[in-house]
């Protein structure tokens, strides 16, 4: 018996702010969650599985119209002729109270009730599946106490949407512990909610977050997919993580220390992008669809380089160089954002001792760098709270920036001022 364990599909998740990105591959980005679902169904059919388990957040929220539900319906109907059963629990994004539109039920698709945990016994495959859906988005109690006892003589699978005992990147919904999962006596726990693939426990029972099926933004980097598990006589004999993402997010950090020309920067970028897209590297294994996968990267340039001053004199110079290099990757790579976090290679101590405007600027910067609270107060007076920033830039609000971010911004401002003063930044 074989089954697939997926979670957090967030079907038709809205991608806001794409209009601010010139040249963004809008259609591939917006259709990525749908195409990943198609890949999941293709995999289920190709590997002849008996069960498809979806551990919550199938949808991103209530449907704007029926097209989202109809698309899922269409994909599930592809499984019916193959005899593949589908078991679903609702999570915080698609809790029962959030999804107001409904389509007719499908006989081979079982959505677990939100009022109490239930079980489905499948004697023909020697499996019992247990689960409970969220009734509301914010479920703060442990749902485990209501789960049924394991069915004797079966391979028992539990479906649960949970943050376990906490994850800084996810809300603590349906909190529970691995010890409590173990105490149920089940053989496999199919979890959802955490978007990064994570094996909580390898065996006795196996406890897994498959991660989300498709990364949706630049913070959800790396391979995404599902778990494929094979069971023989009540024991797991094979398990593997199968990459299904059709679009992959990356964070490329490039140290430019000692890089003093844009041409040399281009060489470093070319090497980094080639390594990223190399089959078997960050791009994933060479396979049937590896060459068609679109890659989206956030590039961070750091280190001490005279390019810090060049960027200050011509803002946008380094971003243009990064994007120009990405264009040479035959449409396989799109740059979502370029962050320039360079520092000046100048002897700041000697320059700060000068009795002129340049020295005064550097002494003020040194004062602020030495006192993080003074820097925050000074910036707060100058910038305000940033309450009018759009949702996508909320992480740039002054009250959310950490000390390292403030220091980087201050040094960027220093470089711009120095460039405007017309000083030779290479001496």
TrEMBL record:
Domain Calcineurin-like phosphoesterase per the UniProt entry, residue ranges: 1-196
Database matches in InterPro entries: Calcineurin-like_PHP (IPR004843), DNA_Repair-Maintenance_Comp (IPR050535), Metallo-depent_PP-like (IPR029052), Mre11_N (IPR041796), Pesterase_YhaO (IPR014576)
Keywords on record: Hydrolase
Lineage top rank: taxon: Bacteria
The species this protein was found in: Sphaerotilus uruguayifluvii
Keyword Hydrolase: yes
Name used for this protein in its record: Phosphodiesterase
